[in-house]
Amino acid sequence: MSELDVDTEGLNRSGEAVKDVSEVLKVARDEYMDKITSYRGCWGTGEFGETFAKKYYQGLGLVVDGTEALVKALESSGQSLGDTSNKFKKTQEGVIDHVNTSTTKKH
Questions:
Q1: What 3-state DSSP class applies to 20?
Q2: For residues 52 and 58, what is the distance between their CA atoms, to the nearest angstrom?
Q3: Of 25, 45, 22, 23, which is closest to residue 33 (Cα–Cα)?
Q4: Which of 1, 16, 17 lies closest to 86, judged by CA?
Q5: pLDDT band per the 50, 70, 90 thresholds, residue 36
Q6: Burial of residue 86 (number of CB atoms within 10 Å: 0-12, 13-18, 19+)
Q7: Res 1: pLDDT
């Protein structure tokens, strides 16, 4: 006989923990953007400063886009864990109800 025994509460907590990480990452990204953009212009407005800033800020877009992709992936993963937890819980409850109903009818 097979057994369906999923720790749905643990699975749901795992999903929430993953979503918490995505929130922390969002805050870190926003703090990074605030700090890094506050330096805008500190290299001066001469040719060197303008060239340096242009190259520097080109890479910034990649950081922001990559971080946003990671945040979305973590949010999706956390949501998926929660959804899976709910599905397992409903399945387990259905099996228990079915077994209880079958047992009650036999007596």
A1: helix
A2: 10
A3: 25
A4: 16
A5: confident
A6: middle
A7: 42
Token pair for residue 89? 């819980």
The pTM is what?
0.72
CB–CB of 12/85 below 8 Å? yes
Block residue for tokens 């700090």: 35
- Give me the amino acid identity at 81: L
* Residue pair 53/40 in contact by the 8 Å Cβ criterion: yes
Residue whose pair of structure tokens reads 């077994």 in the numeric block = 99
Cβ partners under 8 Å of residue 91, min gap 6: 4
Rounded to whole angstroms, the Cα distance separating 60 from 66 reads: 10
**pLDDT greater at residue 94 or residue 102:** 94
Residue with tokens 């992709």: 69
